Every structure is written in structure tokens, then in C-alpha cells.
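Review form for a predicted model. The reviewer records the input and the model, then writes brief findings.
Reviewer: anonymous (R2)
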Amino acid sequence: MRAGRGFERTLIALVGATGLAAALLATLEAHAGGRSERASAEATRRAAALFEDIASTGLDLRFKIGTLRSHLLLQSSADIRGVLGDRDSLQEAVARAEGRAAARLAELDERSLALPTGARGLAVVTDQLGVSTIRQQAALGRQQNAAEVAERFGRRQGRAVLGLAALASAGALFGLAGVFKAGRPGWVALGTGALVLALALGSGVSALLI
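Model under review:
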């Protein structure tokens, strides 16, 4: 009789603990799942923004460098022909034409690019490249951090789901124990259920440590 009452009290306590653990693990699973989804969405958004920044900045800087380079080449050619023009009137005429073209191109560059011409312009573009690289590295770091958060909470959600599955098994074993009552099969089912409950709780604790 006492064994029967002890069995019932143990069963009731374990069933109550299973219900409480299920509520806690369900809350943990929902919270971890929400955080994982939000962090994953943020990582995706940051990756797209970083790609757009790299593409647009790359095109802009390549255009500026190409334009400034064309002006430098034209001006250099004019200077060289100017030196040769001392002995060749044709070279002198070409040098004057190229010099005028270089000056006109420099004027257009300053208007369209809002940059100084020649080597000073290239120096400014180089500085812009350095600034954009630092900005993009920082953006990459933030994107990677968001991805790591998504991965961490995804693993936490997985542990919580595993714990909930174990609780379902423990509940089924406690149900069998209630059917068998305080006999040997009942105690075996009860003990096995208690072991599975402990494993479920361990899974929940390990999820919090991730």
C-alpha cells in the first residue's frame, strides 16, 4: 500500500516536472527561433548592402581613375612632343593640339568628377579608395557578427527542440507507468521516464550555454 502511494506521488511529481520543463523549453525554442530568424534576415540584408556598396564604389572609382589616367597620358604626350618640337615643327603643332585637348579634358574632369586633375586627383581617389575599404571591412564585420548570432541561436533552438522531443518520450513512459501501476513494469517505465526527463533537462541547460 505504501509502495503504491509512493509510486503515485513520484509519478505525479515527475509528470508535473515534465509539464513545467515543457513550458520552459517551448519558451526557449520560440525565443531562440525568433532571434535566429531576425539575425539571419539582418545578415542577408547586410550582405546585400555590402555587395551593392562594393559594386557601386568600384565602378565609380574605376571611372575616376580611368578618366584621370587619360588626362595624364594626354598631358604627358603633349609634354614629350613639346620637347621634340624644338627640332620638328610637326611635333610642335601636335604638342600644342594635345596640350589644348589635355587642358579641355582637365576642365571637364573637374566639373564632372569634382576632383583636381592629374596626380593630385589620383591622390584624392586613392584616399577615397582607402576610406571605402575601411567602411566595407566594418560592414563585413557587422554582417559576419549577425550571421554568427543567427547560427548560435539556431543551434540553441535545435537543442530546445531535442529537449521537447525527449519530454514527449518521457510523457509517454509516465503514461505507461500509470497504466502498469506500482508493479515492476510500472517502476521500470517510471525510472526510464525519469532518465529521459533528465536528458531533456540537460538538453535545455546545454541550449542556454550556447
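Findings: The chain has a mean pLDDT of 83.
Further findings: The chain has one domain: 2-208.
Recommendation: see findings above.
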